[in-house]
Amino acid sequence: MNAVLQPRTRRPIRELPGELISQIAAGEVIERPASVVRELVDNALDAGAREIVVRLVGGGIRSVVVEDDGHGIPAGELALALRRHATSKIASLAELEGVATMGFRGEALAAIAAVAELAISSRSADAPHATRLDARSGELAPAARAVGTSVEVRELFFSTPARRKFLKTESTELAHGVEAVRRHALARPDVGFAIWHDGRLVQHWRPCSGTQRVLDVLGAGFVEESRPVALDIGVLRIEGRAGLPAAAKARADHQYVYVNGRHVRDKLIAHGVRAAYEDVLHGARQPAYLLQLEIAAERVDVNVHPAKVEVRFRDAREVHQAVRRAVEAALAASASSTMAVVGLRDPFAQAPTTSGADTLALAAGNAVAASADRADFWSGSPWRQQPIALRAREPAPPWHAGIAQASEGEVARDARADEEDAGAPDFPLGHAVAQIAGAFILAENAHGLIVVDMHAAHERVVYERLKAAGDAAALEAQPLLIPATFAATAQEMATAEACAGELQALGLDVTPLGATTLAVRSQPAALASADVVALARSVLGELARYDGSAAIERARHQLLASMACHGAVRANRRLQLDEMNALLRDMERTERADQCNHGRPTWRQITRQELDALFWRGR
Ligand SMILES: Nc1ncnc2c1ncn2[C@@H]1O[C@H](COP(=O)(O)OP(=O)(O)OP(=O)(O)O)[C@@H](O)[C@H]1O
Ligand SMILES: [Mg+2]
Question: Which of 151, 401, 451, 554 has the greatest number of CB atoms lying within 10 Å of its CB?
Answer without folding.
Answer: 151
